[in-house]
């Protein structure tokens, strides 16, 4: 899976970077990438969500983009739109290729992120310790936390699904309120799909 999602062409610094901005229930999400792959996803500061109400806004629209969107940016946009508006579709959509230095060389962080993407599905949660076990180092729960902080493509690689062993949500780069919203959104959507 990693080889399909990771494109090894020019280095990230040599890329002609483009961006797309989506208006989502979380506020604006900025996607940076090039023709090779997605570099980063940034959760912007202006949060629109109401705590405890994951159905607050059910749209996800492009509100800004460079003139020509590359295929990886189109795939990422489609995937995020499905995540927020039609979660039953995300399993049918391709994960966009990633083009970030973190994915270029073997490391525990890369292994943790690939394991999380591959094994923890929509509506599920896993503890830092459980993810360390799955990634091959049962004593590395703290290192898993570090890997979550370095995740350049949140939501797609679902670091919000990693919680404390005691059930608390734990930290999140965008703030614990965003992590709680994402977990609630997935739980609500999974329950809707079950009916």
From TrEMBL:
Residues 110-187 form the Methylated-DNA-[protein]-cysteine S-methyltransferase DNA binding domain. Belongs to the MGMT family. Involved in the cellular defense against the biological effects of O6-methylguanine (O6-MeG) and O4-methylthymine (O4-MeT) in DNA. Repairs the methylated nucleobase in DNA by stoichiometrically transferring the methyl group to a cysteine residue in the enzyme. This is a suicide reaction: the enzyme is irreversibly inactivated. GO terms for cellular component: nucleus. The lineage of its organism: Eukaryota, Metazoa, Chordata, Craniata, Vertebrata. Its main location: nucleus. NCBIfam families: ogt. It is found in: Nucleus. It catalyses: a 4-O-methyl-thymidine in DNA + L-cysteinyl-[protein] = a thymidine in DNA + S-methyl-L-cysteinyl-[protein]; a 6-O-methyl-2'-deoxyguanosine in DNA + L-cysteinyl-[protein] = S-methyl-L-cysteinyl-[protein] + a 2'-deoxyguanosine in DNA. GO terms for molecular function: DNA binding; metal ion binding; methylated-DNA-[protein]-cysteine S-methyltransferase activity. One of its GO terms (biological process) is methylation. It comes from Anolis carolinensis. Its EC number is 2.1.1.63. Residues 24-96 form the Methylguanine DNA methyltransferase ribonuclease-like domain. It is an enzyme of class 2 (transferase). Its cofactor is Zn(2+). Pfam families: DNA_binding_1, Methyltransf_1N. This is Methylated-DNA--protein-cysteine methyltransferase. The keyword Transport does not apply. Keywords: DNA damage, DNA repair, DNA-binding, Metal-binding, Methyltransferase, Nucleus, Phosphoprotein, Transferase, Zinc.
